[in-house]
Amino acid sequence: MTHQRCPNCFREEKGGSVLQAGGGRRPVVVAELAAWRVFYAAMQGQTGPVTVPCVACGLPMVQLDGQGDSHFWPIATAAGTVVPGHPTVTPEGSMPLERANQWMEDKFSKIPATPRQSHLGALWFVYLLVPTFLWLSAVFFLLLLLFVAVGANFMDDVIDFPFRAVMGVGALALGLALFQATRKR
After folding, report:
1. CA-to-CA distance for 104 and 142, rounded, in angstroms?
2. Does 114 reside within a domain?
């Protein structure tokens, strides 16, 4: 029964059952370098053996009980394919483990990780738009009720200016919110 964990997203499995789902965390470096660091730590004996790719994030999982052999697989990079092992094969040829680690760090540590796409902006737009719409609807129906109950003269004299002001501010707020929601980032 294998007990394995992803050092990146913290997904944890034991004997085929999922103990912790993981997948919500992305690496702080590019995925190729993150995968290499897991392989390198396993080859140095700092972690348990590498088992399989994590189904949540795609990076290598390591065994927590430390039994068995590591299963390394090639890492496809923009510079070419890197095959971890003793020696490691890089696009620049076969090299010892320490030199391969330095090569990977030099090549990929300066490349920024791809930011995770967030829908938080659209969610805030909805959270702010719905109460605003409900408030404006309540004001409109209250004014409509006053118009019907009291008569047109009251509406013309007293409510006309605040009604137009509220509707104007509401239209401006709606226009700004729609502009922010449709703007390209």
Report:
1. 67
2. no
Out of 108, 131, 147, pick the residue that ends a domain.
108
For residue 39, what are the contacts with CB-CB under 8 A and spacing of at least 6? Answer: 50, 60, 70, 72, 75, 84
Q: Are residues 100 and 20 in the same domain?
A: yes
In 3D space, the residue among 134, 135, 159 whose CA is nearest the CA of residue 147 turns out to be 159
Compute the distance between CA of residue 91 and CA of residue 79 in angstroms, rounded to an integer.
7
Tens-digit pLDDT profile for residues 144-184: 776 666 655 655 656 666 777 777 778 888 888 888 877 76
Whether 113 is in a domain gets the answer: no
pTM above 0.70, yes or no: no
Please report the pLDDT score of residue 131 as a whole number.
84
pLDDT(8) > 80 = yes
Category of 106 on φ-ψ map: left (φ > 0), alpha (ψ -120 to 50) or beta: alpha
Domain contains 43: yes
